[in-house]
Amino acid sequence: MDDKALTLFLALADNLHFGRAAESCHLSPSALSRAIQALETELGAQLFQRDNRHVSLTREGRVFQEQAQQLLKQWQQAKAAVSQEVLGLTGELKIFCSVTASYSFLYEILHDFRKRQPNIDIKLNTGDPAQGIHRVRDETEDIAIAAMPERLPRGVDFRRIQTTPLLLIANRESADLYHRNTRRFWQQTPMIVSMEGPARDKTEAWLTRSKLKPRIYAQVAGNEAIVSMVALGFGAGVVPEIVLENSPLKDRVIALPQSTAVGHFEIGLFALRKRLQDPIVNGFWQSQ
Q: Which of 73, 164, 183, 184 is 20 to 30 Å from the Cα of 37, by its Cα?
């Protein structure tokens, strides 16, 4: 299919000036004029009214303009679809996740996708998962792996990967102290909590339900840091079970019986709904 005639027609329909339209198409005005005349002859209709000073669309030209736009768009989409089947997608995909997620989920998530789309460059950033949705919303990242918040922000889609319980953990050597589940004990107990995000929200909700008011010793970014501080004996903390399972310090801490009341996380992928129209982002999203 030769789409050149449609492209030239639409350029003149947009500019309504032979000189500007010809320049945008890298043609001479006379060559553009001959192409338009040939198209009008083929269609059997006059598409433009022209005189020495003005160019305007005829009624037939306005009808053809709408059809030409649709035809050209469909043709470009068809070419792109065939090209993707033959060559695969090319470009860049930006993913954000925590360090734990990078070795807990990322291999399985990317393994098959990389096989199907070897020409896509993966740009991975790691950090506090509480920042994941923010980074997706401001379009710093295409995809984030994080925990589902109480309310999903408008315009953001979520795809669940795994459910993990939240655990109340303490230093193993002093674990016996934490079986004193009294209000006075917890008011004196130092707690290491997440700075923000679903982990902080769920920890505070559990403390409120339990009518406990412990002493906040530290607010940290990242669940891995909470495990480290608890292992060092600075206090108790709440972390997702998957973080503890993958921590090199897991033998130095212990999950307390109170953990069953804390709650759980829905961990999954986040993406802006409008970004899912991008072939690369949508291709990754649909592959999961």
A: 73
Rg of the chain on CA atoms, in Å:
30
Six token digits for residue 97 = 């996740």
Last residue within a domain, chosen from 63, 87, 111: 87
Please give the backbone phi and psi of residue 214, each rounded to the nearest 5 degrees, phi first: -75, 170
pLDDT value of residue 96: 92
> Whole-angstrom Cα distance, residue 36 to residue 203?
70
Instruction: Tally the domains of the chain.
Output: 3
d(CA 139, CA 161): 22
Q: Are residues 179 and 234 in the same domain?
A: yes
Q: Which phi and psi (to 5°) does residue 20 adopt? A: -65, -40
Same domain, 175 and 256: yes
Which residues are paired to 123 by β-bridges? 94
- Residue-level pLDDT at 203: 87
Closest C-alpha among 257, 250, 256, 198 to residue 226:
250
Per the rule left: phi > 0, alpha: psi between -120 and 50, beta: everything else, 263 is left
Instruction: For residue 134, give the H/E element and its range.
Output: helix 132-137
User: How many CB atoms lie under 10 A from the CB of residue 214?
Assistant: 19
Q: What is the DSSP string of 49-104?
A: EE-SS-EEE-HHHHHHHHHHHHHHHHHHHHHHHHHHHHH---EEEEEEE-HHHHHH
What are the residues facing 166 on neighbouring strands? 240
Mean pLDDT by 10 residues, the chain (288 residues): 85 91 90 93 93 88 92 80 64 88 82 82 87 90 90 92 90 78 75 87 87 84 89 90 90 86 88 89 84
CB 70 within 8 A of CB 99: no
- Contact call for residues 268 and 158 (beta carbons, < 8 A): yes
Whether residues 253 and 168 share a domain: the answer is yes
State the CATH number of the domain containing residue 153: 3.40.190.10
